[in-house]
Amino acid sequence: MPMSTKGQVELHETLLVTFFLVIIIVLGVFVYYRYFVMGVRGSAEEFREEEASVLLASLTALPEISCSHDDCVDTGKLIPFFHVVRAHPAFYGRAFGFKKVSIRVTYPESPSPDVLCDTAAYQQVFYPENCGYYVLYEQRPRTVTSTFIVRAPVSLFYPETGFYRVGQLEIESYA
Amino acid sequence: MRKGQTEVAGLLVIVVLLLVVGVIFLRFRLFDSGQDFAEVRSSVEASRLLKAALRLKTDSLALHELLSQCYEEQQCEAFREELGKVIRANLLPQEDFTYFLEVDRVELLRFGGCTRGIVGSSFTVREGVLYESRLVLCRK
Question: Strand B95-103's sheet: what is its strand order?
């Protein structure tokens, strides 16, 4: 076989440089694509979180559950509100989407923190000591791929006694 | 063009390509707006927690009365203890706080374990006295 001429050596060199350049470009495109996809996913998460946070801020101002005299949540309105939501699932489903909205009494801590405050609990003598949380709205998708929770403290007013407690308004968002 | 010049040009192309990749990487790493939003939300949460805590009233306890007692009688221990319990009951296990109370712009009380963090505040006027509460939230 004849020895390589200078032209052939330069051709090999050019091919090698082109090969590495292509590898660098492909790697660059791959990294860019990966971060782009991550960025889009992150934006989607941020958007969902912002949406839940806006809902968190606006929920306590809803006349259906807020106090008429102060910046607080009237617990006397929470159970009727849940019944209204269940009676009009399409309307509230459009407004809230796939979420669970609940309020947990945090201080003074309830002796029954895992008992739902519903009509049955409300009608008992020991209310509000006999229950620990209220559910305002719940709608789950058929399959849940991810959930995250945002929460904010709220002042809970008990019109039966005129007392105030502290609670956490929680929004569990499903995707 | 000489062979040396061609190789320098090739090297420059590679350096430029690496720079472009680096800039794209930094763009995604540094300009993350989610952090600002989380801080704003934490600040609002701290303010809301303060307002809810200071409104607390049960048959055996009214926190605003303990607040007045702290200023008028200089007895802040009961207020400090109760407010600490309320705040801790509403924080995550990995969170800590520092509470500041200023009355007519003079610091009256400070307790908690945070040196810096996200601040929320609440103002109350009772009988002509301005109470300013500040709550700093941080990670343990």
Answer: B106-112, B95-103, B129-139, B118-126
**Contact (Cβ atoms closer than 8 angstroms) between residue A169 and residue A85:** no
Among A131, A59, A39, which Cα is nearest to A100's?
A59
What are the tens digits of pLDDT across the range A92-149?
Answer: 999 899 999 999 999 999 999 999 999 999 999 999 999 999 999 999 999 988 888 9
Chain B residue with Cα closest to A109: B89
Q: Do B49 and A166 touch (CB under 8 A)?
A: yes
Q: What is the ipTM of this complex?
A: 0.74
CA distance A147 to B68: 43
Nearest Cα to Cα of residue B55 among A105, A168, A164: A164
> Do the Cβ atoms of B132 and B123 come closer than 8 Å?
yes
Q: Looking at CA atoms only, how far is residue A32 from chain B in angstroms?
A: 7
Is the four-CA dihedral A89, A102, A130, B67 of positive or negative sign?
A: negative
Query: A166, A106 in Cβ contact below 8 A?
Result: yes
> What would the pLDDT profile of B124-140 be if each residue is shown by its tens digit?
888 888 999 999 999 88
Q: Distance between CA atoms of B54 and B82, rounded to whole angstroms?
A: 10
B83 CB near a chain A CB, below 8 Å? no
Q: Which residue has the tokens 């374990």?
A: B113
